[in-house]
What we know:
The structure is a single chain. The protein starts with a helix and ends in a 6-residue tail after the last strand. Among the domains are: 435-503; 508-737, Phosphatase 2c, domain 1. It is flat, with a radius of gyration of 35 Å. The chain contains 26 helices and twelve strands. 40% of the residues are buried. The longest helix is centred in the middle third of the chain and has 67 residues, at 437-503. Helices cover 70% and strands 9% of the residues.
Amino acid sequence: xxxxxxxxxxxxxxxxxxxxxxxxxxxxxxSLKKIANDNTGEKRIDVLIxxxxxxxxxxxxxxxxxxxxxxxxxxxxxxxxxxxxxxxNLKGIYYHLKSDYPNSMLxxxxxxxxxxxxxxxxxxxxxxxxxxxSYLYQRNYKQSIEYHLQALAIxxxxxxxSLVSTSLNNLGNAYLEMGNYLKAIEYLxxxxxxxxxxxxxxxxxxxxxxxxxxxxxxxNYVLAKNYLQRAIPLFINLGDMNNLSEAYLNMGIIFKxxxxxxxxxxxxxxxxxxxxxxxxxxxxxxTLQSLGSLNKDQGKLGKAIDYYTKSVVLYKKIGDSxxxxxxxxxxxxxxxxxxEYTQARNMLEEVVKIAGEKQIQLQVRDAFYQLSQVCxxxxxxxxxxxxxxxxxxxxDSLNNESNTKQINELSANFENEKKENEIxxxxxxxQLKEKSFRExxxxxxxxxxxxxxxxxxxxxxxxxxxxxQQANSLLENQxxxxxxxxxxxTDSIDYAxxxxxxxxxxxxxxxxxxxxxxxLYKPKAIVSGDFYWVGEKDNKALCAVADCTGHGVPGxxxxxxxxxxxxxxxxxxxxxxxxxxxxxxxEEIIQVMAKGQERSSVKxxxxxxxxxxxxxxxxxxxxxxxxxxxxxRNGELIEIKANEFSIGxxxxxxxxxxTNHILGLEENDLIYLFSDGYPDQIGGNERKKFFYQPxxxxxxxxxxxxxxxxxxxxxxxIIKWKAELEQTDDILIIGIKxxxxxx
Length: 743
């Protein structure tokens, strides 16, 4: 009854204070908006970024995006690198709170790159810290700790004690997740002492919550509740909804472990409601898993399975191996209760594999214990003993307590059971001797017959075993031979890639000719059938994107051949007219590929887009074989279409030739050359091609971004579209922006 009373008082306190906190937060935001309106330039941008950060804390996605967009556009307008870095950092925080950790890490690493360029030490330490958190939530503890230590070193050098306290807390949390409680409590107590000295309520609340979790894992629920009850009011006063949700969840787990079902369910439901409000997928998954465990303990197995199934979907969605392992442990318990021992054992062995790879020692320990129970129920006592011994050893290393007595007791029970079996056999033997002579003869003959059958069976099994060993040996030799050949082939292909990369124009040469540009080059295999070529002659800058027949090794050979022939043709050409160059290229390709063949046409071919930019006359000339080009001018897309035949498809002497297109250029025109790999990529929910119209729409939507941002957006879009599917073809896109240097 006392707990219910405390809960009601606490709930009334929370209901009363949260609106006040929200009002206070809004007053701070209104004050910041006034400061932003009264300032310009870098100072204004810094304030806009602070406003966006406040809206993240309030989970107001619409306002956050509005102020993030303002911060980004104004930072780019004046090339304020510190602001651009902060914007990327905010994007990373936004995706982190949505449990999209890969995207979160992508933006944090971009922020780190920019901050490193401008030597912003505080910003660098912040980005390192955030990357470490992304690794932690993806259960990559080694990388997480490595980045946290780098952030800690910088913060100690800067003398920023508040940030040092944050890093110490985060390191403690990383070791806590690993199950290394000694290291965890060491870092958390250091962080807490420092935060208390500084009066830093944020870090005090974090460390109290994490120390509570350590004591909960050590089954010291009194101390666990004590620390958590000190943390909760701080989270409420700070308006920290995310950590408040986690505190409710942890309090529910403590009550569940104390078998206080009603109190546990109350806190779990509060956690679920708060997590849902801030749309934390990881938090919702963890709470659903806890509700499943609570119902399982009450024998409500159907309801428990329903909660577990929902949590498994979310854990798989966000890639949470630890959460998945916890849920599998709980489901294995239900299978064991239902007598479905094979399913339980398979699931537990999967937990040992996943948790072992991720160094989640707690789950490995619990899986060993459940496996010992399953083996015991199936009368497999030797393996039950083996798993229990593994459990006790690991539990001893985690809790630092001696469990030798339990192991000895199990060993003694096992030996006693063997002796009891021997006594039973001796008693039976004595009873047999007391039976009649006829019964003895029957038993003797039965034994002899049984032994004979046993020897025959052993002989057959031995022969089968020997045959299997010989077959395995043969397969092993064949496997080694195949691996050797594969290695040789792969080495050859890698060498071909080296040659192909050497033939392609260098990044420096490309940037010299086209300063504002990008190349998105994604071969399907080690080597590619797509290639690009750039060059300069007679004040004309030339660029070509070509797609040769096939991809992989055949396409690569064709691309290297086409590259060489194209370069030779351009070297010989006097007028540098793209159509003339393609006509000559077509003839040369046919001549080369037709050598040694009786037929006059060849199946190998090449699609190509070739442009020539005259820097003096400020005009573009273009000719193409199947590959059109796009030009975006003043927000409108112009498509210049190619001829509908390929290089190598026209026989020498045919009248048909390539069309030459001429277009005047204006400053800020955007020119895009591409192969068909991007539009033809299979993906999406319906597993269909990306297609050209969505490709054109995408280019129009990103045309105002910087060229490197356009490349990044194109790359991220096709990766998301493709998802887990195989890349369909080689992908090559070149974007060129016309600046005063070119026009």
